[in-house]
Amino acid sequence: MPNQSASTYPKAVLFDLLTALLDSWTLWNRAAGSEAAGRTWRAEYLRLTYNRGAYVPYEELVRQAALQTGLDESAARTLEAQWLQLAPWSGARDSLRKLAPHCKLGIVTNCSDRLGRQAADLFDIDWDVIVTAENAGFYKPDPRPYQRALDRLNMNADDAAFVAGSSYDMFGTAKLGLRTYWHNRVGLDLVDGAQPPEIEAPTFDALLPWLRQFGSSKASKEDSAQ
């Protein structure tokens, strides 16, 4: 059981999985045959999922995005066949290891249960909660996947933080008041209308210092409101 009293960390840190923690871009590029084709395909997939709302099979959206960007549907089959070759971003495992003694750790991902759990298992972490779009019934940034994770942890949004991989996440986290760190490893643009995160960084270097100040920042806001 994490020792909350000894730190100023939030009670929980939730992570996007396939963009914030894992380098899915390299896998998509390889399945597409080139970096340009992979980036275009991945961007279309992100657009489809984040505009979808209610869940439809993840694998179908991946296939649809491939076809809409001029790829053969065999690219989607290749992506799934190589799924376990997903690699954590540098710094991801170390950040999780350092956070584990201080707070609960969870995943909120736009994925099927099967592929989401396979990807989560690439980390040697006893996740406290894993919410996929399939088990939530909705794709992010609908607030329900994030809220489902909070409910399963029995905590409020102001007791947790979220680490995003795409600025689409900020639509959902802003609705819940979930403070957000954007791990923007590949230099994505902020999506029109998305609320900027508290921190945007290309690495995890600033994550733990930001999280360590979480509790004291919350206490200061509570004191000023009194």
UniProtKB/TrEMBL annotation:
UniProt KW Hydrolase keyword: yes
Metal-binding listed as a keyword: no
InterPro entries from the UniProt entry: HAD-like_sf (IPR036412), HAD-SF_hydro_IA (IPR006439), HAD_2 (IPR041492), HAD_sf (IPR023214), PGP-like_dom2 (IPR023198), S-2-haloacid_dehalogenase (IPR051540)
Keywords: Hydrolase
GO molecular function: hydrolase activity
SUPFAM superfamilies named among the record's database cross-references: HAD-like
Full protein name: Putative haloacid dehalogenase
Lineage: Bacteria, Pseudomonadati, Pseudomonadota, Betaproteobacteria, Burkholderiales
